[in-house]
Design brief:
The protein is built from 3 helices and no strands. α1 packs antiparallel against α2. By secondary structure, the chain is mainly alpha-helical. The chain has a domain of 27 residues. 5% of the residues are buried.
């Protein structure tokens, strides 16, 4: 299940959907790196390598979340407006 298709709620905005999927992927990568960093017996070089990757992942997360709050709010408003709209009949 992707972030853009949680449960029965589907994100209508294609841009938001893509951003949420990319965010989910980067969060999973970040968690993987944090888990690796907690492993016992890491050499100095291994720890430095993981920290370097973690630094890049944090920067990537920062970029992915820029403007995301506004897109989420727009989506929430659109979803709310769709809920209140009367159903259209295809019969005339």
């Amino acid at each position: 299940m992707t972030a853009s298709n949680v449960g029965m709620t589907v994100v209508a905005s294609r841009k938001l959907s893509v951003l949420l999927d990319e965010l989910e992927e980067e969060l999973q990568n970040t968690l993987k790196l944090l888990t690796q960093l907690k492993m016992e017996g890491l050499t100095q070089d291994q720890a430095e390598g993981i920290l370097g990757e973690l630094s890049a992942a944090v920067l990537h997360l920062h970029e992915h979340t820029r403007g995301l709050e506004e897109l989420i709010m727009e989506e929430a408003i659109m979803q709310k407006n769709c809920e209140g709209a009367p159903a259209r009949s295809t019969l005339m």
